[in-house]
Amino acid sequence: MPSSDAAKPVVILQASPHPVSRIFTPEALHALHERYTVVDLEGAGPGTADEVLDQALPEAFAVVGQPDLPAERLARAPKLRAVLNIEGNFYPNVDYQACFDRGIHVLGCGPAYAQAVAEHALGLALDLARGISREDRAFREGRENYVATGNADAVLLRNADVGFLGFGNLGRALRTVLTGFAPTIRVYDPWLPAAVLREHGVLPTGLAETVARSTFLFVLATVTEESRHLLDAELLATVPQGARLVLVSRAPVVDYDALLAGVAAGRFLAGIDVWPEEPVPADHSVRALEGTVLSAHRAGGIPAAFLSIGDMVLDDLDLIARGLPPVRMQAAARELVGRYRNRPVTG
Amino acid sequence: MPSSDAAKPVVILQASPHPVSRIFTPEALHALHERYTVVDLEGAGPGTADEVLDQALPEAFAVVGQPDLPAERLARAPKLRAVLNIEGNFYPNVDYQACFDRGIHVLGCGPAYAQAVAEHALGLALDLARGISREDRAFREGRENYVATGNADAVLLRNADVGFLGFGNLGRALRTVLTGFAPTIRVYDPWLPAAVLREHGVLPTGLAETVARSTFLFVLATVTEESRHLLDAELLATVPQGARLVLVSRAPVVDYDALLAGVAAGRFLAGIDVWPEEPVPADHSVRALEGTVLSAHRAGGIPAAFLSIGDMVLDDLDLIARGLPPVRMQAAARELVGRYRNRPVTG
Amino acid sequence: MPSSDAAKPVVILQASPHPVSRIFTPEALHALHERYTVVDLEGAGPGTADEVLDQALPEAFAVVGQPDLPAERLARAPKLRAVLNIEGNFYPNVDYQACFDRGIHVLGCGPAYAQAVAEHALGLALDLARGISREDRAFREGRENYVATGNADAVLLRNADVGFLGFGNLGRALRTVLTGFAPTIRVYDPWLPAAVLREHGVLPTGLAETVARSTFLFVLATVTEESRHLLDAELLATVPQGARLVLVSRAPVVDYDALLAGVAAGRFLAGIDVWPEEPVPADHSVRALEGTVLSAHRAGGIPAAFLSIGDMVLDDLDLIARGLPPVRMQAAARELVGRYRNRPVTG
Amino acid sequence: MPSSDAAKPVVILQASPHPVSRIFTPEALHALHERYTVVDLEGAGPGTADEVLDQALPEAFAVVGQPDLPAERLARAPKLRAVLNIEGNFYPNVDYQACFDRGIHVLGCGPAYAQAVAEHALGLALDLARGISREDRAFREGRENYVATGNADAVLLRNADVGFLGFGNLGRALRTVLTGFAPTIRVYDPWLPAAVLREHGVLPTGLAETVARSTFLFVLATVTEESRHLLDAELLATVPQGARLVLVSRAPVVDYDALLAGVAAGRFLAGIDVWPEEPVPADHSVRALEGTVLSAHRAGGIPAAFLSIGDMVLDDLDLIARGLPPVRMQAAARELVGRYRNRPVTG
Predict the structure, then answer these.
(1) CB C163 within 8 A of CB C213
(2) How far, in Å, CA of A203 to CA of A218, rounded?
(3) What is the pTM of this model?
(4) pLDDT per residue over D199-221, tens digit each?
(5) What is the residue range of the signal peptide feature (chains A, B, C, D) (predicted)?
(6) What is the count of residue pairs from A and D with beta carbons less than 8 Å apart?
(7) CA distance B209 to chain C (A)
(8) What pLDDT score was predicted for residue B1?
(9) Minimum distance, in Å, between the CA of residue C100 and any CA atom of chain B
(10) Which domains does chain D have, with CATH numbers?
(11) Could you give the C-alpha distances from D225 to B322, C53, D342, in angstroms and in order?
């Protein structure tokens, strides 16, 4: 290590499951190396990552990624100021409580995906509203319907009754892209006081009413013990006839058997991006189900979203190095970091 | 005719090509009959419409629809105050100049369709941005790609460079639904001064620059002699690599051979709702063309749009009857009414 | 007249009551002269304006301003395409019905002032909400109140109940500048169907309810026979205690005696820009009345508003010369042009 | 203490400098007492507050207010989960680092005042733009100017060049209320990465350019060592001729001598709400200075702002009691809590 680097803060990097180039633009990666002494655990050679990590910890200023960081390892990193998670999920291989006790910033990259998910969710909703993919398929098969003929069930989103289950990053981004449609948005989010929702221009509403009054219903909740099968068979039975459901957060929030049965029965239409089992079994009946738009967990993971992670990491590292609080990534809440039940996502 | 009706203004109605129930809700139709003596040319019995029309003209307050109204017929309607067109196109079977000379309101229903077209156009754009219908088809064929794998060319609409060719009703409605995406919108519209475009928050731009700088390019222009093949092969060659084109106004504005060749060559993607020949020939190669979303002239003609026509007609009739100017339908411009070259649309 | 000018359309100009330089920037004036043969009636020399006008009429393409144009004069102007009013009021010295019968565009410059009036109206409302001018006066007299002490009656505009009487150019501009306050806006406008108001995101409401439910009430109506003393003593008695009234359109719409009595009684506060008699008599009691912000008909007539008139005139002349409809100035409605009862305004 | 209260969490309350009724509505106070065992230090009787505090600490769940809490006192409060500051300033009588080390939430009520300050700042800006208080004074003295006469220097805010120094709570609230004016907003905030500013639709800009290009310049920065006299004489000399300056955050950020000299010289106009010395000396020359709007630290402290504090406290206490993170008050940043140099404000 050249002596001039000695003054640079040490950043430990473990980009997996991403290749580094997915989350850092060349410019961002260059800046990272210019400003910090980067210890890349994946460049460390097979089997040596743990060793390299242990060696780097005493001088480490920040960890980018999610290598195993139990309490004893954290204890050997007295200068550690931040752990920057780049996956969107917090796994229990890091002792987050130890971080909080030390005042080490624990940061997540959830905001990186929110815009991409919101745009995809709106795309699914408009598809369901207007039959875009259904009629594209018909056109390719030579059975398209012109003008009004294929539009019997088409609806407008403008001024529509819209429901959100959950109002975190996804809900806020989706509310923003819906602005120009002037919808009435009812939101059920048990973690947020009514005043916060009103401040965002949405109506705080109970779960039952949100479901029963929504022509467009977006499932945007994360998974916790409490939210598993939040949208169960009983609640799905109260969805208005002809409603459009869009699922883009996490599959366990919905009872899929009931969901698909409702679509099959012609009760509502559904745009589905997340699945209880991924990949979906080859012979799954949903593949032939009309009334759906099928999407393979593609809402968030687009190039622009991934590359924004690197920019966020770089901006927040710089702020922390300057003695300022980070502002781009999302501070994990001590109360919540252990409650999420999201599976790892690969692909 | 009961004597009590004598005091009601006489409205001549010819709803075709629509059935009356497509454009009037039951409530609106009831209100129409309650407030006016309605002479329905289609209820007149076969072959008698002309006769009924001629008989009603001397007392006619307004004509809703587009029966033949040459100068000599208009001359026999001294009380006529308005001609309310419900088709979206002005055909030469009405002597519009005679109407303008008489101060008879000539009103069009273009605004009725604008919101539906704008939402469909955005739906097509988001589909092209994210591959929604492409991946739905793949999913149904058991070859879906999860997470990042199928997202290599996915792009965000947020903060994107967007171009509009034309800024009439469609452009304004589309600008509004795009609000939440905070795009940069360049507009080419030779009928509008720059100040009007700036007032709407869009950038007045020349044709070449609008095309060459747009990641999303929306063709929203109506057809006139001047706009035929406005987007020709030469201009299409300057569309940025990977751009998304959305065509929802009128087919003659674009050179379709060049358009489809560009898509086939992988230069850009296209969402197409209007076609030079409708129905599209069964064996047309576009049916098998990747890089497109195919739509059968479905953008505007949805139930909510049709039914808004009846409400607009009713509101404006009432204003005119009260001695006030109409405000919901669009006053036809003396300068433009003869310049449009739109074909009749049926369906 | 130089021969090269022969091909230019002839524009007759009578800028009064404005000096030409108030409504045309040097650039706009230069462009006007470059594109048109301008016959300036005021440059014509004393007593000769009528003669010059009569001489120019046979070739006149447009009249900018409001010289006497009775039917017989109009009849001598066969090429006349437009009369562009630059005062904001239509006086009976022009035979407008003859213009309408001929299809001559009759254009008003009302939109030029709307933004200025809207900003002034909001300024008055915020002043009343927070006591800005009242406390500025106190400060200058050495009796200012710090922090909470002077704020007992201060209110927020955010999420407030706002009422508009009238929703023409002023109402639309004011609604736009209020966007960021997310108010509930109730509008009474008997000339507009409910659907138009809803389309603008405001609530169509009856007169009594609009008045009785508004914490901020803006009087934005123009004067007609019907709107004289629209806000009379009886209605003023229903204004909520502590409300803020802002008057920026036309004085005759309000009963001023009742208005000032209400302020004097501490029932509401008022920001007043228009007066039944201007100048207001030197000894008028309003000059000493607390609970008011006094403004001397200053809301609309600012340099930026005046200069936009010249730009609007130029843009619309150019469109008309190209065979296109004007879009910047406001087409006068045949039904309304004779109904306004505004006095001339000088200053 | 009734046994039934034993199960309620203990909340220590010291509302001063506010009376309790200023920050809690009767409903909020009732709810507070219903859900928590409230130990009100001010109800404790003279001289006994410390004693009561010490006695309550071992069971304390939260402290609302800012009693002396050095490390040794905090050490005697093992169940303490949150310190909720209700003054807007963090004083050194609390050992915040000890709180952070313990994972005790340290919350501030800055957001409570932001909307009130933003509306006042806009009111001052519109007053300066249009001369509202100046002309109100003239009117009361019988020397008002009608229509254009008094408007020579009036300007529009629409589409104006606006500059913000600082983009915390105040800047965000002000940006929102400015939405309808479609301004270009340049922001200098050295604590925020450019991406954050862009995300809010403002332009990240250097200090010099922000000052030199702003027709409306808002000083919204808090005071730290670095920001003292941020706007100094040299920088003030670059303010555009005729600009409007609005000071609503903290006086030390500006060199007041240079500021007032600039106004006196006719270089710019200023709306001033905060002062280096409060009360301002009775004989201060600013009291007679034209070109100013004078305000006595009244921007934030209005009833609606104060009462929102109680609601925020109640909402966040409830979230914390439910094991969720607080969301309404502002989490103090470990890095910043010691850097602010705001004086106590009384009134």
Answers:
(1) yes
(2) 15
(3) 0.96
(4) 999 999 999 999 999 999 999 99
(5) none
(6) 58
(7) 22
(8) 42
(9) 6
(10) 3-109+303-331 (3.40.50.720), 113-294 (3.40.50.720)
(11) 69, 71, 11
